[in-house]
Task: structure prediction
Amino acid sequence: MVIESTRNESVKRARALAQRKGRDEQGLHFIEGEKLVREAVVSCARFSEAFIEEGHELMAAVLTGSGADVHIVKRAVMESLTNTETPQWVCATVKTPEAALPEYYPEGLIVALDRVQDPGNLGTILRTADAMGARGLLLGEGCADPYAPKPLRASMGSVYHLPVWFGPLEGELKRLKTQGFVLVCGHLKGQSVLPRVNSRAVIVIGNESNGVSDEVAALCETYRLPMYGLAESLNASVAAGILIYELAKAMRGA
Result:
């Protein structure tokens, strides 16, 4: 049966996921577009429901095989579901991963965020962390929700490639330090030479307006990106990209 009404119960449940309250209550998040849906399939994400326009039988079969309850919908219904002005022909609701804080963090690079509030920045940082081989993303209190629509689009599926942990940042950084991790944060008053790192390192990215808090900075080696022009600072996701790259390169001895 083709869903023609925007008041259908499945459609209303999916639309509620645009808000954090709906995501928390249902334990689900909403993804749209062929690329993000395919990334979720390849990453073995747990689907709940999927919505597809007529004429895409192969994707319907793929999503059914991935455990989704697949609904065929009219264009008007698809437009009511999605958050983009010109939506594609597929979207879905997916079980939000429950990544408990690890007893022992995995060796490698951990990216930690201190009150990063812009959804687009968060998604871009997540994608960069994935590209640079990070082992996980640690979000402190006050960060944006990585499973909101905008971060999901910005991450381009990277949210399914590495664990995302939530916890009290200061406490977790202290625990990481006891586990042999070198803590580094970007800071305007930091040293201009990247601290020496080993195979266990954390890069802390601070809030867009205020940077890393004094309490967090006190736990870290501080590093200031050299600036050769007249601009005094960079966009948070741009600065994060450079910092993550530099640290990942240093950890590999490059």
Notes: The CA atoms of residues 83 and 217 lie 37 Å apart. The mean pLDDT is 93.
